Amino acid sequence: MEKFIMDDMPKVYFGEGVLNEAFTYELKSIGDNVMIAYGGGSIKRTGVYDKVISLLKKANKNITEFSGIMPNPTLKKVQEGAELVKNNQIDFILAVGGGSVIDCCKMISVQAKTDKDIWVMQFIDKNMPTDFVPMGVVLTASGTGSEMNNGAVITHEELKIKTGMRGALAKFAILDPTYTLTVPMKQVISGAFDTLSHAMETYFGKPLNDNVSDEINEAIMCNTIRNIRKVIENPKNLEARSELMWDSAMAENGILKLGKTGDFQAHFIEHQIGAFTDCNHGQGLAAIHPNMYKHIYKNAVNKFARFAQVVWKINDELLSQEELALAGINALAEFIQEIGLPTSLTEMGITDKNMLKEIADSCTISIGCAKQLTHEEIYTILIECL
Ligand code: NZQ
Ligand code: ZN
Which residues pair with 151 in a beta bridge? Predict the structure, then answer.
């Protein structure tokens, strides 16, 4: 294990119907002016909007609405939200949605407290935020785990960069798995694969020797795989959705990362594909992971062999460690196909090689990856993903 500091986490309310109980307690300790932020309108169709608004009204809050937060939220949208917060003297931001809404709100919280452009502040001046408008989360779609951390993934459209930023940590997060019953199946699967990806990106980060964080991680990976299969078999299976919701939070709440330097190279590649194409996050990851792992597994043979045995239950004694490692990556590729995620970028309509070169050249290089890749190697991987 490497040295670590364990940070604070949001207070989590988990379970069916938990909104009432959570708001009864939490709304007492927030200011009067609340901004509710959401996406393209799913919360209105599902009834979550009505529930939230009626409880806010019951608590006599002054409500401001900020809607239209898009999947892959942009810096422009963050700045629009921050203006609204400033102009309406908002005391508290309530994000109601999936990862995109939460991420946008985390950065609105920062931008509303400064006149400086937060992009310049974090990437040019290298100043991390210390002042935030407090926020809370009502989660409606799981996968990113954004509800329990302070990272936000934001796209700068002009610069064509999609990247992680440091934002606010929610005061509380309300996780009611019944809210996820209306999420389209395609999004359920891509969200759950995002969870699996977070777990793998942490597991294959350094150090690679056996450690407690990775052993907890193996349980999360096995549970995620099992429950993806269950939810495909029966989309109404609430237990499976509950498990996936908590898997998602566990994969990104910092517990699995204790004592580890994450890899996240597949994420860095996918984020740049997203900056150029606005593609779905989980689908992009599915197209990248197996090919990328075929490039790096020889630098981490024992870890990949353990992954094959523990996560994919491959226990062929005739296989060498290297063969076992490769069998695990093949099992991952077969699983991606089984659950209907794209197995290539071509399937996602991404075929422009010049664009892939730009994506590779602008991609962040991971220091936690078993093999530190070059921009040229990333381009090779992208071509193999076609
Ligand atoms: O916009 P609305 O109308 O609400 O519809 C959304 C959206 O179209 C819909 N949806 C959400 N809850 C629903 C629902 N539809 C029906 N019923 C419900 N209950 O689902 C669609 C996708 O939502 P989105 O929030 O974009 O998905 P997700 O949660 O996968 O978030 C993706 C974003 O999070 C970033 C990704 O890069 C991407 O920008 N990530 C954030 C991370 C973090 N902060 O920790 C980590 C991840 O690696 C990831 O990069
Ligand atoms: Zn992700």
Answer: 166
Same domain, 370 and 231: yes
335: domain range?
A: 185-384
Return phi, psi of residue 64, to 5°: -115, 140
Q: Is there a domain that residue 3 lies in? A: no
- Tell whether 113 and 262 lie within a shared domain: no
Q: How many CB atoms lie within 10 A of CB 216?
A: 14
* DSSP 8-state assignment for residue 364: P
**pLDDT tens digits for 126-168?**
999 999 999 999 999 999 999 999 999 999 999 999 999 999 9
Residue 197 C-alpha to ligand 2 middle, in angstroms? Answer: 7
pTM over 0.90: yes
Tokens (6 digits) for 328: 């695990």
Whether residue 117 is found in the same domain as residue 223: no
Phi, then psi, of 184 in degrees rounded to 5:
-55, 140
**Residues flanking ion ligand 2, Cβ below 5 Å:** 194
The bound ligand whose nearest atom lies closest to the alpha carbon of 252 is 1
Q: Are 213 and 303 in contact (CB under 8 A)?
A: no
Cα–Cα dist 201/10, whole Å: 23
Calculate the CA dihedral of residues 268, 215, 144, 190 and round it to 10 degrees: 90
Sheet with 62-66: strands ordered across: 11-14, 172-175, 135-139, 92-97, 33-37, 62-66
Domain shared by 219 and 147, yes or no: no
